Amino acid sequence: MADRLSKIGNEAARCTRCPLYLNATQTVFGEGPATSAMMMVGEQPGDKEDIAGRPFVGPAGQVLDRALAEIGLDRASVYVTNAVKHFKNEPRGKRRLHKRADRAEIQACRWWLDLELDVLKPKFVVALGAPAAFALMGRTLVLARERGRLLRWSDGRAGLATLHPSAVLRMRSEPERRDAFFGLVGDLREALRLVDAEACV
User: Fold this and answer.
1) How far is CA 130 from the centre of its chain?
2) pLDDT score at 196
3) Which domains does the chain have, with CATH numbers?
4) Which one, 5, 66, 118, 125, has least CB within 10 Å?
């Protein structure tokens, strides 16, 4: 299983399925144990991830690590990936500003996400943010209405949608950031409970 995943990751490193590879440093494939019952899917790598070649290693990744620690999960025990494997950005001087992936880019990259799902066969898939939920569901999901509860993705797999950790960082005040963070923690705690429930089915 791990060997097949590594082979797919090597193939993804040469991906030209959409134009995003032209303006990115490298493909950022998923990582984590191939035996993990839970997969977490974000939108796309950011600047730090694009440089490092690993998912969730920047500021949003630190928020995710803290949230997982709150529910007693080690990040190393969970498989994390993104719906889009290249960093979509707009150069602005010496900086590269994040740009949201569009539907066509998400759909083009669904090829790799499907392969990850096929190999790993996770019991439960958490969508971090609306773009990830769109990739998994095949339609737009309103997070304010759907987050934190059991969903069935388009392939029938069980899952849950919550906000992306970067949304916590974008909150304007410390009280808002705190509330958003503990909202994320609550959703992840529910995901952990549902993983156990799915394992018993």
Assistant:
1) 10
2) 82
3) 2-199 (3.40.470.10)
4) 118
